[in-house]
Amino acid sequence: MDAVMELMAAGPEQTLPARQLMAFTLATHILLVPFGVALPFLTLLMHHRGLRRQDADALLLARRWSAVMAVQFAVGIVTGTVLSFEFGLLWPGMMGRWGDVFGIGFGVEAWAFFLEAVLIAIYLYGWNRLRPWHHFWLGLPLPAAALMGAFGIIAANAWMNTPRGFTLDSSGRPVDVDLRRAVFTPMLGPEYWHFVLAMILTAGYVVAGVYAVGWLRGRRDRYHRLGFTLPFTVAALTTPVQFLVGDTVAREVFHHQPVKFAAAELVWKTDTHVPEYLFGRMNPDGSISGGIKIPWLDSMLAGFSPDTEVTGLTSVPADQRPTAVQATIVHWAFDLMAIIGSILVLLALWYAWCWWRRRDLPASRWFFRCAACAGGASLVAVECGWITTEVGRQPWIVYESMRVSEAVTTTRPAALWAMLGIVVAVYVALFGAFLAVLLAMRTRWRTRDASPDPRPAAPETHTPYGPPAADGSRAAGGSRTTTRGGPS
């Protein structure tokens, strides 16, 4: 309730519904982003394995993942387009003044989006129609297009956090725009690689989690083993790297956005030997209620020394920093993200230890239970990362250059609330249809796999490149035929 009251008091009455609408659409769209960015990479990695090792199960997994990739991309078109419109409709003050400076990022994302759409269409069309290796090479640019789209969006967001590449004229409008400096801001590198790694490990854990559930339910054939092992290995290798990169990002925030860092760590007054709080709540007077206090740790994390001075929230006037409630929200999101990352590192080490000792998957059912939950936990961490980034920048929409209240639309609040209700209803129907399609695909695939004679079901059951030839080899791929239980 306190948070709602503070938001209602922060700026024009349109601010609260505009924020809620933007937050809802961004929070739902971000759930699809890991698959748009990283699923093409996982699919092509599986595809390459299938061709290189003449592995029919790998080829079948690649084809099925490509179908999921296409459905996800179609849903992402809707949610991403809504977000694009909302920037102009909800925040015309920002786009009108600063669009010429940071709009290049959205342009890059748009070109990457259309390129990715074309490449997905070619890749899907290529199954059963192109020579195997030609098909693979035509799909290879897909991950690059996805990374380019991510670069455009993160470049725009990094600019909002550390605006550069312009000078202000006498009326306060940006002139003499330097696009190179506007794109390559101090936070671009840390934000981009942190984001990319998060997308890879999240997609890896979610995909592996599907097969972990199947493993727990007794489907322990080679098909499920491979479907689990490849994406989980990619995610497990990425997780410790992401943990280190995340620590670097936090330190970059400490240097370039000290007030945001103070909010994330609940630092009220500038000081040395600053303690770290695990959770806890900041009160309006700066005191901390609850949580676990670890002496000196915040200074140690920021500068590797207890003598490191950490800037506090009171270093700037109250109207130029997050409120106590906003700081608590940022702090909880940051702590939850860090805790999930730490648990995932332990899970990755468990997996690595068993593989090093026995060259096999862990035998414990608890490992697969944890693996099944890892995808959902990763999605929660992604949401927490964006909460930290966006709420921690308050009250600025462009850090230290424009407030949210200056950028918000003049549309009547009632219209914005109505728009939010419509968007929620549409998104519930959209995601319901998305899940229904995925479940229907899963049911069809299981029916085909269980068929004693797969030929009437579809050539896909044998090979994505056509039915097997009379001698048992593949008509186009030249690889041996396998069943769900292993090589036949």
TrEMBL record:
Its main location: membrane. It is a multi-pass membrane protein. The chain crosses the membrane at residues 20-46, 67-89, 101-125, 137-160, 192-214, 226-245, 329-354, 366-388, 414-441. The keyword Magnesium does not apply. Residues 468-488 have a biased composition (Low complexity). It is found in: Cell membrane. Keywords: Cell membrane, Electron transport, Heme, Iron, Membrane, Metal-binding, Transmembrane, Transmembrane helix, Transport. InterPro entries: Cyt-d_ubiquinol_oxidase_su_1. Pfam families: Cyt_bd_oxida_I. Residues 448-488 are annotated as: Disordered. It comes from the Bacteria. Belongs to the cytochrome ubiquinol oxidase subunit 1 family. This is Cytochrome ubiquinol oxidase subunit I. It comes from Streptomyces pathocidini.
